[in-house]
Amino acid sequence: MENAINRQFYLHQRPAGMPSTSDVRRRDAAIPRPRDGEVLIRNRYFSLDPAIRGWMSDTPSYLPPIPLGQAITSTTLGDVVQSRHPDCREGDVVYGLNAWEDFSAAPGSYLMKVPPENRFPLHYYLSVFGAVGMTSYFGILEAGKPRPGETVLISAAAGAVGSVAGQIAKILGCRVVGLAGTDAKCRWITDDLGFDAAINYRDCGPLTEAIAGACPEGVDVYFDNVGGAILDAALMNLKDHARIVFCGAISGYNAAEPVPGPYNWWQILARSVTVQGFLVSNHVAQFPQGVARMSEWVAAGRIRFQEQIVDGFENTLAAFLTLFDGTNTGKLIVRVVPD
Amino acid sequence: MENAINRQFYLHQRPAGMPSTSDVRRRDAAIPRPRDGEVLIRNRYFSLDPAIRGWMSDTPSYLPPIPLGQAITSTTLGDVVQSRHPDCREGDVVYGLNAWEDFSAAPGSYLMKVPPENRFPLHYYLSVFGAVGMTSYFGILEAGKPRPGETVLISAAAGAVGSVAGQIAKILGCRVVGLAGTDAKCRWITDDLGFDAAINYRDCGPLTEAIAGACPEGVDVYFDNVGGAILDAALMNLKDHARIVFCGAISGYNAAEPVPGPYNWWQILARSVTVQGFLVSNHVAQFPQGVARMSEWVAAGRIRFQEQIVDGFENTLAAFLTLFDGTNTGKLIVRVVPD
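^ inputs. structure came back:
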């Protein structure tokens, strides 16, 4: 191994609020030895996602909390450097849930492979073809079930998930309105991505009225990435039989106190709304078909997306924090090994 | 008309908290004249339901708020005494959304008829065959979609909706656990109605753990009538892909301040839960089939239910308040005209 050190970021203590270098620390660890059925991966890229913050807490979620002392769970993409699984070979490029470390050992059956005929940059498999893009794709299609002519409202609409979900809804013939936190983001989703309207929720006056103005007939599908006050305003604008794709709740991820659910919870009953908790992990078996369809749209220029690639393992934690302070734009990826 | 006075309870001012006689007042009004397409009904029974409290407020809901000065909206059952609708005749017994008053004028097309071959007491059409029984029936079947062997948890399980929903789930082959607020209610649903277990939520210690004890494999369907802390405890016990039938939220109906939604909202995402806001009004066209199937179960003794019939128009408001103080048991009905 040309690099005999396995650098890691690991969980030293559970953060209260935003994670700091006291909570998530660096160390040099041994390179793991793959067990039978596992492969050893040299990680090239880390995918930085808001959900990782949740796994640092010890509240029950869809993944178990990261144990103290263990490397931070994260989707990574890398090269197989040693294989003890019959379906993986040295040189395969794989991606899956590993950790912020140079080398990961993982069960071969849990990993997805970049197809050999791939003609896109590898990091697309952590963004538009990865869990993020598949969240947009299956979230809007299978949980949102939008019909042509319906109104789709999307929060964090300039984010990696929301921006792609909105473009898919446009391809399906919907009217799409996005919520974002700066005028520049609003311009990007309308002028570059083709959203029908955008609302800067920091600068629009009362949000419930602003949404009503942009969605005068009401909202058929609300694709929610943020929860909190924005969800509450959206709830006041739903049409009967609306669908909420509950895809994330980033507004509460760093809260030290329990965060209340939506105050306008009652509207879910009053409007016969369906709320679907959406986890892309339920759709992993369908990823190849999702990647195939998205590949066509990306190649045709119908789906555009932003990536923000940060170079250097050592910048991982600092980059991660930008997910929560509003400075990040586009799918955030750390490049560990230069291309 | 043998009774020339039309007694009414009307909304004088919107209540803050529990409605009092300052908010909901009595008066004698004129008997309304049915317009073309309407019928005049002499009301025999009023159905008192928690949802009426919501209609007294001016927050948006599935029905418009009751205008100030107008009689309190309520389902009633009565005799057609004059008809200007081709499908209704004098002497028909009809039920529908009218008001707390002796005489109501209503569009004939909005009313449902007690079938001429009926062999049950008339007030059953405000309880087990009425909106309440149909809420149980369509709520558990169409929103809950329970499968044999699944675990169904029901709040307000000794209430009119919950007790019948639980018995239907038993008929379908589910394991059914009920939450109720007294030991007597708990004994009734287990010993008389056949629920598998009951939890007295006032006297069980931490509720999340109590539910876990009664539902060791987790909850597949949560039929919620109450919201609040009980919903939060239920949310911590859901299985993946659980369904929540959001049928009511009585814990918040009298709140003067905005009530937060569930603190454990995140579990809806983490467990890929579907929340279905359920309004029986979406199923009115299916009522005849629901009444037919329920009639068989009631006649066979497979569905049992409690009614609490209060005599006398003048007792309507006081009876209504017992819905919120825990003293009511069974579907609450006011008998305006002696049988």
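The interface with chain A takes residues 54, 59-62, 227, 236, 246-249, 252, 258-279, 282 of chain B (CB under 8 Å). Residues 131-144 of chain B form the longest helix (14 residues).
thumbs up if we can close this ticket
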